[in-house]
Each structure stands twice: as C-alpha cells, then as structure tokens.
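If I may wish for something, please sit down with the protein I am sending here and say whether tokens and residues agree:
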Amino acid sequence: MTDHFLNIYQHDAERYERLIAREDHRGNIFQALMDIRPFSGSDVVEFGAGTGRLTRIMSVLAKQIDAFDLHLPMLQEAYRVLSESGMENWSFTAADNRAIPVRSNSADIAIEGWSFGHVMGWYPDSWQQETDKMLSEMQRLLKPNGTMILIETMGTGRRDPKPPTEQLATLYKYWQEQHGLQHTWIRTDYQFASVEEADELMRFFFGDEMADTHVADKNIIIPECTGIWWKQR
C-alpha cells in the first residue's frame, strides 16, 4: 500500500480532501485536543499537514499555525481550502518531518496527524531510527512545557480501537514504551452525503475489500477509531 498512498498524495490531493472532509462528523477531534492541551493563543507547528485537516480545526483558536508537508499537491489543496475559511493565522511550507525549518524552542504545540505512521511502510528496515528523528525534531522546536501530539488511525470500520496492522501496533507500542507518550482514543466516524459517495471514496483510499464490506448494506456512516498520543516537554 506504500505506493498507493504516495500516488494519492502526489496526484489525487483533491479527492483525498473530499474523503477526509467527511471524517469526524461529530467534531470529536477538537474537544480531544482541547482536553490534552488547550490551544487558544498557541504557536503551533504541524508536521505532515496534508490538506490541512488539523490546520482547520486549530486555526479557530491558535495564534499561529506553521504547517509542513513533503508533498506539494497536498499543500496546494490545503492552501485552497484554508483560503476559503477566512482564517489568516496559518502558513504552508514543503518540508520533511525529520527536518522542519522552524527555530528551536518556538512552539507551544507540535502536532502530526496520519503522517508519522507511514514510517512503517516507507522505512521498514529503519523505522525506529526514522521515528526517533521525527520525535526528536518535535522536541527540538517545542518551548519548555510545550506539548507534542500524534494522531493516527486505530481502525477504519471498527467501533472499538485496534491498530489495523501489526506494524502499526508495534509503532504505537514503541511510542508509549520507548518515548513515554500517553495515549487515548476517540471515535471519528465518517458520514458521507450518499451511498454512492461512500462507495467511491472508501474504495479510492481504503480499497475494494473495505468498500465491499462496509458500504454493502448501503451505509453512509462508517465507524472509525482514532488514537491520540501526547507528551509534555
């Protein structure tokens, strides 16, 4: 699936945005983040921002969000979407998660969503070293008492949390045991506008088996569990 996701990020950012705009229809991510670290007036650095899903959520209260992603098409879509929001406290720049061009000790919050998990597919033989680099980069740019937050899937089509692959289970365990991150989870269910849209977008991103299983009964709400990990500097 590694090439599958890379192809989407490089060539199909608009359809990816259509998919993620349907996730978390109850708005649970906002409250979960506020419970972990209230972000009102905060300086935020976002890793692997994609099309700006977390940027939008946090922009309503944050002082400034400097968001980064390696894939220009994703950033271009993020710029389009955020420009329509009316918010102006954000920026998007191309950068690798292991080398963010932000000065040290400058952020209240360093956050990533659905990005660090790709380390297992993209660096199967060196995922620990690459993970350490990403988390070290978060630590570097945080102010004293700043908070790092990591958000990743705990299962599409699931009502109870379980890492969707053994590789992700290993990664999440590594975060908790080797880096001391705390953990919780929330439901971030998808709600699509129609069965046809659910089928198209689920099949596009998650594949035929997932779509056949979860849209077969004409469902427009697809359950999703999302994990959140965090640590204060």
About this structure: The two ends are 34 Å apart (CA to CA). Residues 88 and 219 are 37 Å apart (CA to CA). The chain has one domain: 2-188+223-232.
